[in-house]
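Please check this.
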Amino acid sequence: MIRAYKFLMRPTARQAVALGEMLRDHCSLYNGALEERRDAYRHPSKTSIRYGVQSGQLKDIRAFDPERQGRWSFSSQQATLRRLDKAFAAFFRRVAAGLAPGYPRFRAVSWFDTVEFPKDGDGVRWDSTPHDRVTRVRFQGIGHVKVNQHRPVAGKVKTVSVKREGRKWFVVLTAEQDQPEPLPATGSMVGIDLGIANFLADSGGGFVPNPRHARKAAAKLQAAQQALSRFPRRKAKDRTRNHQRAVEKVSALHGKVRRQRLDHAHKTALHLVREHDFIAHEDLKIRNMSKAPAPKPDPEVPGSFLPNGATAKAGLNRSITDAGWGVFLAILNAKAESAGREVMAVDPRNTSRRCPACGHTAKENRPTQAKFHCTACGHTAHADTVGALNVLRAGLARRNANTA
């Protein structure tokens, strides 16, 4: 199995400048390759340029511009071109599926924050043996950079990436490991219902409160964004010092919310994996759930529109995004795989409207957001607990069907 590790780097001032130049030059390569593809398609001959052609041009590009392109790793530049190729592959896939295409865009230097090295030892070297109790990673054109390695790396390092987040620099490793020993069996099974009022309700009647990290930081974030809006939009190199500070303040607040959300997801998922052998959850289509409502034209007044609940839906969409269900489910699946646990996604339809006692399904069974009252048998419970219980039953039924 493949596991990722992310460590904070502590470059010197000169190394930080060199790392920034590496991102800048890879960004220039990305944009140049994108422009070549775009111009070729706009030509009357409709020429198609792919990764193989552009990769074959790298040798000439490095010889033509040795100061900016020739000093960096050849394999890292190939990885940047593959990154563009993947963007075009995703674009054509969306076109074929009839979705919004989203043509690949040119990247500003401030929005190009990652460079990947496909192989340890080719342009980069991860030194797992600390020197003077300090771990280092060596990059071609930069040298040995100190790394704050807060945990050991198990397995063989496969790829290495450099990532910039604000003023901080990180190294991201992927390591190939043997499948770890599964956790001891507990004999417990659980269904979970994800929500807004409570982040999670389980089939045993337990609840995990929704921390609402973004809402708690909304006032500070609003003030920081208002301060930023007072500056005219400029390129990063043309910003004043106060403008740059305002940009960094907004970025730091968003980063804090993201880290808090990740921390909560990791802790919640770890608790579930340690306590239960089988975990069932709703197969939520989060992207569809957070779509803006379609406009409703007024048939009586051309050019006018009827109320469509867009304001209320925008608030719900913010709450869904703040909860971070997608991140949590991805972490849950990864931890369950490492621990030898089974996770099952089930159809979420009617899970909170079906009575767990008699099976009666009706919209009227849920008179409020939190209350469940069966109109057939009178069974009463918390609606989220009922949903989690039905999710567990559906998950067990699906597992038994797959086994059969």
Q: What stands out?
A: The longest strand covers residues 156-165. The mean pLDDT is 91. Residues 10 and 243 are 25 Å apart (CA to CA).
